[in-house]
Amino acid sequence: MGLLQERVALITGAGGGIGRGVALSFAKAGAAVLVAELDEHSGAAVVEELKALGARARFVKTDVSRKQDIEAAIQAAADEFGGLDILVNNAFAPTPNVLLEDKTDAMLEQTLNSTVWAAWWSMKAALPYLRARGGGAIVNFYSIDTEVGAWLHGDYNAAKSAIVGLTRSAASEWGRFNIRVNAIAPTAMGATFHKLAAENPGFAEMSAGMRPLGRCGEPEADIGPVVVFLASDMARFVTGETLHVDGGLHLPGYNSRPQHIAAREY
């Protein structure tokens, strides 16, 4: 019996990277998984991987910046698998990496819609189903970028700060329903990492060297099991936490200033 045997989970952005790693870990732990993913090809491919592991799985095309899409995905999970026990808010839509003064209102709106609003909508929509099961678990995704004030991510940093506030508020208020709400701040070798590594020789080695553990994280082997833990009864007394899953990167932090930006501009 796995840690998540007979549990039903919905994971947003599960078509690749960390989301896929979490979905695979959930399947191995016994959960039925609703893959809420925008890209039809990758979403369907992950479902086939999950089924090959013996899991029940379904793909629903989901744009997390659209409330109706999120509500439809949660309804589909309940219809397909008979309820919902776990919600993982992983997906977001990235914007161009530009300086704060060059970030537009449209960029901020896109980021807020795919992170803060997406979590807000999904948590509210999932609540009746979690309550019907006598409780459940929600795992939201935070980022170390917010803590170090990462350059070129002003909209993302603002949104992820809001995610922590939402996580703590829900943990405080929904504990009375036996619903636990936690956040993780992961770093792993997802699509963005591999793109940067391909474009910048030595990037992977530099990234590994920044971490006390001396290596970069793997989505399934390093991040997925932590989310499984938070979603399982092993964490039955854990709520309102923000857990770094980054090989210790949060200890030294990092300097994200682009080399071409002067130390002082007039």
| Radius of gyration over C-alpha positions, nearest whole angstrom | 18 Å
For the sheet with most strands, the description reads:
7 strands, parallel
**Strand order, biggest sheet?**
3-2-1-4-5-6-7
Distance between the termini: 63 Å
Number of strand segments: 7
SSE sequence, one letter per element:
EHEHEHEHEHHEHHHE
Query: Can you give the mean pLDDT?
Result: 96
Structural class: alpha/beta
Beta-strand content: 5-15%
- Tell me the number of helical segments per DSSP (H or I, 4 or more residues long): 9
What gross morphology would you assign? Answer: globular
Helix content: 40-55%
How does this model look, in words?
It is a single chain. A seven-stranded parallel sheet has the order 3-2-1-4-5-6-7, sandwiched between helices. The chain contains nine helices and seven strands; from the N terminus they run βαβαβαβαβααβαααβ. By secondary structure, it is of the alpha/beta class. α1 runs parallel beside α2 and α1 (17-28) packs across α9 (219-231). The termini are far apart. The protein has helices spanning 17-28, 40-52, 67-81, 105-132, 144-148, 154-174, 191-199, 203-209, 219-231; strands at 8-12, 32-37, 57-61, 86-89, 136-141, 179-186, 242-245. β2 (32-37), α2 and β3 form a beta-alpha-beta unit. The mean pLDDT is 96. It holds the Pfam family adh_short_C2. Belongs to the short-chain dehydrogenases/reductases (SDR) family. This is SDR family oxidoreductase. It comes from Pseudomonas typographi. Keywords: Oxidoreductase.
